[in-house]
Amino acid sequence: MSRAFAYCRVSTIDQTTDNQVREIEAAGFHVEPQRVITETVSGSVAALERKGFARLADRLETGDVLIVTKLDRLGRNAMDVRATVELLAEQGVRVHCLALGGVDLTSAAGKMTMAVIAAVAEFERDLLVERTQAGLTRAKAEGRKLGRPSALTPSDQTAILGRRAEGASLGALAKEFGVSRAAIQRVERRAA
What we know:
By secondary structure, the chain is an alpha/beta fold. 50% of the residues lie in helices and 11% in strands.
């Protein structure tokens, strides 16, 4: 006999999973309270790296149904979502996504939907990389200095070099200027 499980996730503690649980019930699924898994964790964390989802995956058996309200509840990375759905399909677990018309993501139609979603996600990622590279190239051409601003002013850096020449230790200078030892070492490397 197949069992229904619900996975409901929010990203921050000021959010609640109540609406997700109600959506699943309104769609006609009866999920026993002990089979409703809720957790607060970013969708950027891979599904199997989340404590709640990992425990859920251990409980699922062949024939079970996992219900999510939206695909992004499983994750924001299309490749991770796809890998998660494929892993569950290999275990004989069906994955239903309400936002996609209740399609079983492990069915032929669901696999096609997942392939399209993955292709669109990859396309968007490639566009983002292109836009980022174009922006960096433009900024360099305009003479902008890229990267994080230095915690040390030019006069601080000159003072550090003078003090190091006098024998001051990295630790003492780091403490005096409120930076890490690595920051002092970077000043030295840039001056060399």
